[in-house]
Every structure is written in C-alpha cells, then in structure tokens.
Amino acid sequence: MMEIGMFGTVATIKIKEGNAAEFEKIATELVNKVNENEKGCLLYQLYYGEVPNTYVFMERYADQAAVEAHRSTEYFKTLGRAMAEFMDGKPTVQRLKQVGRFVGYE
Amino acid sequence: MMEIGMFGTVATIKIKEGNAAEFEKIATELVNKVNENEKGCLLYQLYYGEVPNTYVFMERYADQAAVEAHRSTEYFKTLGRAMAEFMDGKPTVQRLKQVGRFVGYE
Q1: Among chain A residues, CA nearest to B6
Q2: Residue B101: left (phi > 0), alpha (psi -120 to 50), or beta?
Q3: For residue range A19-40, what is the model confidence (pLDDT) as tens digits?
Q4: Exposure winner among A31, A87, B49, B85, fewest CB in 10 A?
C-alpha cells in the first residue's frame, strides 16, 4: 500500500434532541478557529446528514504534526468539552490515512 | 440552520479478504479520473483506516450539479461496477450538507 502520510478524520456525532442550535454555535466556532489558525489542516468542515440529530466533521491534515498541533490547541480542548455536553453518546471517529498519491493532490 | 448548499459524501467500504491490491488499483483510477475531470468536485480522495479491509472515500462538491455530474460519468459507472466485485456487502454512504459558511471556505 503506497502511503504518503496524509491524514483524514471523519467524526460522526449524535446530539441530544433539541440541542442543534447550541451545538452548531460551538461547533462552527471551532471550525472557524481551526481554519483561521492551523495551516497544516487542509480541511475542517462541519456537515449534517440524512440521519436526524447527527453531525459529521470532515477533516484532513498535511501530516502527523498537523494532527497533533490541532489536538493540543486550547480552543480544541475547551470547545470540545463544551460540545460534549450536547452529545448523545461518544462520537464515532474514523482515523484515516490517504491511499497513494493522486492527480490534484495539493 | 444556515445552509450554503455545499455537499459532502463519506462512503465507507468493506472489501473481501485478500482483495486490497485489486480494489486499490481501481479505486485510485477513479480518484485520478475525478480529480482530472470534475471542476465542481472539491475533494475526492481514498483513505484507509484502523479497521482491516475497510476504505473510506471522502468527497466534497461545490453544488448539487457537481454531485449529479459526477454520478453521470461513464467512468464512475464502469469503475463503480468493477469495485463492487471486491466489496463485502454494500458501502455505507453518508450524504452530507455543509453547516453554515466559514472562514477558509473557498
């Protein structure tokens, strides 16, 4: 398997009924902070899907250092704790590595 | 919920034991074709994770037209059928919409 070390994360989060607005407020603050501060983070966006009360963070990092830099920020720790209050159980986190090197890989 | 119509897809695929090399060959061909041909597709990359024999496509599209353009290409249909032969059950597909508008949204 040809590996180039690019890392991805997909975090699927279920929230308690009726907490969408508060959760989104905190989650979007986190998204903004990451995009403003983390050059090694190539993608950090929040999505919602067809399943009610469920959100998905799609994330991509240039390398392991960028992953660790993200996780060590104060805002990630603080906003992560704040989001946890609205969660219905633990998030499902897929920690991923990119397969191979492709056209369009920036 | 403030919506800007940006679409994401996370497709998690389990493959039959011992088929990694063949599956990756076809899947990487698809990734290259998409990145070469689809301007409205902002992200189309293949990942593998901690779960054996499991792959994840992370995808992002500028709009619904880009989603439909992708699905109507000959190569998506042909390579999709070819990949299906190596799959262990149906893929789990999360069809997603981006929440709100963020710093760093290109």
Answers
A1: A47
A2: beta
A3: 999 999 999 999 999 999 999 9
A4: B85
For chain A, the domain total comes to 1
Q: Which domain holds residue B53?
A: 1-9+40-57+64-96
Q: Which tokens hold the place of B90?
A: 């149906």
| Contact assignment for A94 to B12 by CB distance below 8 Å | yes
A8 → chain B, closest CA residue? B47
Q: Which residues of chain A lie closer than 8 angstroms to B48, CB-CB? A: 1, 96-97, 99
Handedness of CA B12, B17, B22, B25 (dihedral sign): positive
B15: β partners: B87
Q: What is the mean pLDDT of chain A?
A: 90
**Mutation site, B51, B96, B105, interface A, largest A CB count within 10 A:** B96
CATH number of the structural domain spanning residue A75: 3.30.70.100
Q: Is residue A104 part of a domain?
A: no
CB under 8 Å to A51, separation ≥6 — which residues?
none
Q: What is the mean pLDDT of chain B?
A: 90
Nearest to A102 among B32, B60, B104 (CB): B32
- Percent of chain B exceeding pLDDT 70 equals 90
pLDDT digits 0-9 by tens, A44-83: 999 998 899 999 999 999 999 999 999 999 999 999 999 9
Q: Is residue A30 in a domain?
A: yes
